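User: Can you help me understand a structure? I only have the sequence.
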Amino acid sequence: MANGNRKIYACCDENRRNAVLGSVLNGIDYLEVVDEPSDPIADRQRRLNVYFINNLAAAYSADNICIEGGERIRNINVLPGPVASGNRLTLEVETAGDYSIYMLRMVVSDSDPSPPPGIDPMLAAVEFSFKVRCPSDFDCKPEQFCPPEPPLAPQINYLARDYASFRRLMIDRMALLMPQWQERNPADMGIALIELLAYVGDRLSYQQDAVATEAYLGTARSRISVRRHARLVDYYMHDGCNARTWLQVQVDTAHLGLLKIINFNGRQQTTKLLTSAPNPATVVEPESRDYQEAVTSGSLVFELMEDANLYQDHNEMFFYTWGDQECCLPRGATRATLSGHYPNLQPGDVLVFEEVKGPRTGAAGDADPTKRHPVRLVNVVHSEAGTPLVDPLFPAVQITRIEWEKADALPFPVCISSITDVEHDSQYIENVSVVCGNIVLADHGLSIEDENIGTVPAVSLYSVPRDKTAYCEEPERLPVNPRFRPGVNQGPVTQVGGYDNSASASAAMTWSLRTVKPSIDLTSTLDTDITDWSVRRDLLQSGKFDAHFVLETENDGRARIRFGDDLHGLEPDAGTDTAPHEFLADYRVGNGVTGNIGADSLVHIVTNQPNITAVRNLLPAQGGVEPESMEDVRKNAPQAFRTQERAVTQEDYEEVAERKPGIQDAEATFRWTGSWHTVFMTVDREGGLEVEDDFRDAMVDHVERYRMAGYDLNVDGPRYVPLQIEMLVCVKPEYFRSDVKQDLLDVFSNGLTRDGQRGVFHPDNFSFGQTVYLSPLYAAAMKVQGVQSVHIINFQRQNEITDPAPLDDGKLDMDRLEISRLDNDPNFPERGVFKLQMGGGK
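Assistant: Let's start by predicting it. Here is the structure, written out as tokens:
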């Protein structure tokens, strides 16, 4: 017997059935599989009794009933002539199903999956099992397990440094010469002189051997030198990255267009966010005294990364639970229903689910600030045929259905409504979590516009060519462009990672440091010619006419600009006294972990829009990374060129295949097929996923750039070896055998256990050629509470002649391309069987 339920929410109190009872609508109450032992085997489990909440007012045929699901047995058809009697509809199917869960759905026809008229859409389907009458030791009611989240690891800095060698040497020398002098206060005259001498000594040492020092990666002190040395071996030294966060902007007008670039007093300015300001007002006027004081006092500045359309009714939205209580969105959910009509909510918009009340107290101060999660919508349904979407049971209630990216699936349950605990009078509270709209992305950095970084000096040097056309002729003097290495006045220059506004909300917070570039643009003016220059990581791929440049940062944060040489990148032309070649820079300042601010830190917005009532970053800013240290580059760069970029040996193919995400292990085999060599790539996917055609094509494309010419490539899956294991378990007297058996089946499953850990036979616990040992099985069983003793009486490959050797040796060996498997699935017994014989206990 199975009850109808809604798949969007996991609710404790489902009131939808009671609301439909006695109304004009009808719906499925439960389903009963008729399985009488006295019936012939061919007729058992083929008759279904579908009970409705109200008496049936319409006749339904076999075309109105669809049965979905199944693992081994699928496409089960309903025979013509269902019989209706009161609130019961009796039907017969062609064949009984397997052990998996099926779903019976009421539809209009085979071509129209909508519920028939008069059937409530939330009660038009029911899940059931054909094997519900089969013997079982466990309760058939499904349980929902919410494992606790693992605690965060403590933040420990392992890169702490001590004083420079000169300072340490002088302090040690003073301790030897003057043991009575113990002063270590930095304000002491002696310490001040030591630090001054250490600085002077360091600078003098650098000047003496600067050339020899900067010539080698191991001894270079300049960050720019280290960066160039690393690039020689194809290693990119990164200069850190700025942080970004999701920001909510609340407005008091129906619609407001928030622009990244605004016009104020005839000048274009960026829309900025501040962490603090002398005036508590939310909106700060650009170029005002409050803004200047906030920046000079150390307020962090963030700026919008994109334009946004803001709507007043998107400030706060609520979930619609269809009249049910004590509901939550379960972990992994990707869809929900909102209460209200939101025609301006579109796919691509980002929403943030936020817990605003404590589920046990109902107080706003008890809300968990970590229970906030952004999602990017992929589907929004707010109307049908031009009419707002409503609850068919309550036509006055308008609703909006939303669905978001699978990559943004909820990492934790989102509580929607609950009952307070006894200490708070057990009151029902709703809207524990709300939906926040008007979400935009902002990142750390303050824009500096039109900064004059200098002019190209006029030509003052000339070179004489060696080849002369005639001895007596005066050689032509060729001008040599002066060296022009300007720098920006402020720093550190912001380094920005890539962003795709069509990807998931989680993808917006993850990027590779190889995509990070400085946020700077140059514009040069020579006479009437205006040239826009763009930044590159290097100039190796730049042509002689490309207006490209490289920004190089030193250890102290000073940034210098390096142009091309008319071979790799364009070299700026020299100006004259009457026509200087002037450069203006637009760049941003702010980088590193400083921008990783906490949630609700950005509370002021610098704009000319007075209709903004509140701003706040709902989530902590993330992504801020400090520049890569020279020590790390010295350690990593010499090994960078050792990365194999071609596949020659079997090991090469295996290593290349394992670079693809989702691959746990790979084994390559070379074979001569009679016409050419073929590399057979056997891959073990994470989670035990099958190697289907789409994945096989993607793997071939991934390996193609590394494959040697003359070698074909074939991708296949592993050879799974099903196991047959039988345990004899003695239960302690004070425990129930069924409870212990259930815990053992949970521990020895091929999925996640109730506490969120992998089961013993999880596919990711085994790979190619991995031996299965008996001792871990004994250890896992003995850890189960209530187990007194365990004895394994069968341990072998399935469907083979009984072999006592593995049980005697305590291990079961696998061949090179074999992977052990034990799913213990009654639908697929050929995938391994795990049996338990329980004794003792109650």
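Now, to help you interpret it: Residues 189-208 form the longest helix (20 residues). Residues 277 and 297 are 9 Å apart (CA to CA). Let me know which part you'd like to focus on.
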